[in-house]
TrEMBL record:
GO MF term set: disulfide oxidoreductase activity
Native source organism of the sequence: Roseovarius indicus
GO CC, alphabetical: cell envelope
Protein name, UniProt field: Thiol-disulfide interchange protein
Matches recorded under PANTHER family: THIOL:DISULFIDE INTERCHANGE PROTEIN DSBE (PTHR42852)
InterPro entries: Redoxin, Thioredoxin-like_sf, Thioredoxin_CS, Thioredoxin_domain, Thioredoxin_ResA/DsbE_sf
Primary location recorded for the protein, binned into one broad class: other
Length: 165
């Protein structure tokens, strides 16, 4: 993963750039904390904030509490934060990291790093993708953000408030 870029500070990040029109997405298989096989199709009907991350990625580690805060504030039947780890050491390092920093509201998900990076077109970590209820990519941000800030939550809420035709 030598080509994998790691982006800068959480504080200096803009809102997520949204696309002019929704984009189709691929979904590699991944597993949850209970070992169940999933794809993005399992989340249809909800807006999803997919965050590709790893425990060894410093900016990823720094933004994880803000993703936890976002899930606590907006998570439910209409919205889900999906932190998809690409750690090759497996779920045990993810579980240990969650315990170390006190993550309480996020689920654990793990994918093969190469398959996930290729399928999602991710060039660096963290990469976060906003997915609408129909499974289309609506926006993308490479680099960390303060996900539980009022501005970001308002932006995500506008996508949550849209209804499928």
């Amino acid at each position: 993963m030598a080509a994998l870029g790691v982006a800068g500070s959480v504080q200096a990040r803009p809102l997520m750039p949204l696309h002019d029109k929704p984009r189709e997405m691929l979904s590699p298989p991944f597993v949850d904390g209970q070992g169940r096989d999933l794809t993005l199709a399992d989340f249809r009907g909800r807006v999803v904030l997919l965050n590709l991350w790893a425990t060894w990625c410093v900016p990823c580690r720094e933004e994880m509490p803000t993703l936890d805060g976002l899930q606590e504030k907006l998570g439910g039947d209409d919205f889900h934060v999906l932190p998809l780890s690409i750690d090759r050491a497996g779920m045990k390092v993810v579980r240990r990291f969650y315990e170390e920093i006190g993550i309480r509201h996020l689920g654990m998900y793990l994918a093969d790093s190469t398959r996930a990076m290729l399928a999602f077109g991710a060039l660096g970590l963290p990469t976060t993708i906003l997915i609408d209820r129909d499974g289309f990519e609506r926006g993308r941000l490479v680099g960390p953000a303060e996900w539980d800030s009022p501005e970001v939550m308002a932006q995500i809420q506008t996508i949550i408030n849209e209804r499928s035709e």
